[in-house]
Amino acid sequence: MSKAEKIKKFRDFFQGMMESFKDQSTGYIEFETRELENVFALLIMGSFVGIPSPPTTLVIRLMPHMVREVYVMQARAADMDDIFGEITSMFDID
Q: Are 53 and 46 within 8 A, CB to CB?
């Protein structure tokens, strides 16, 4: 095996590692974004589950912008089996 082939394999190896790290990091960021959306929606519409809500005028002004969050909350509630299971699966904890 020539020196150029070794360098290419070495470069391919590290390029593959970098792609893996990027994919994993993107997954973590997407998960955190989903959870932050849920927290935001609970803060705004917390009165439905018994959490004290912000002033009604603020909620009414934000409601048109919350349509997507309502759908996200409904989907998460339907798919919610075990949030800790989802977190541990991201970190490969057995």
A: yes
Please name the residues in contact with 40: beta carbons below 8 A apart, sequence gap of 6 or more.
Answer: 69
| The two three-digit tokens of residue 72, written as one number | 């996200």
Query: What's CA 33's distance to the chain center, in Å?
Result: 4
**C-alpha to C-alpha distance for 84 and 28, rounded to whole angstroms:** 14
Share of the chain above pLDDT 90, in %: 0
pLDDT beneath 50: ranges in the chain: none
Total structural domains within the chain:
1
- Please give the residue range of the domain that contains residue 21: 3-90
Give me the residue label for tokens 């959490």.
Answer: 51
pLDDT at 71: 78
Residue 47: predicted pLDDT: 66
Angle, CA 30 vertex, CA 24 and CA 31 arms, to 5°: 90
Give alpha helix (H) positions in 1-94.
Answer: 3-44, 56-62, 67-79, 83-90
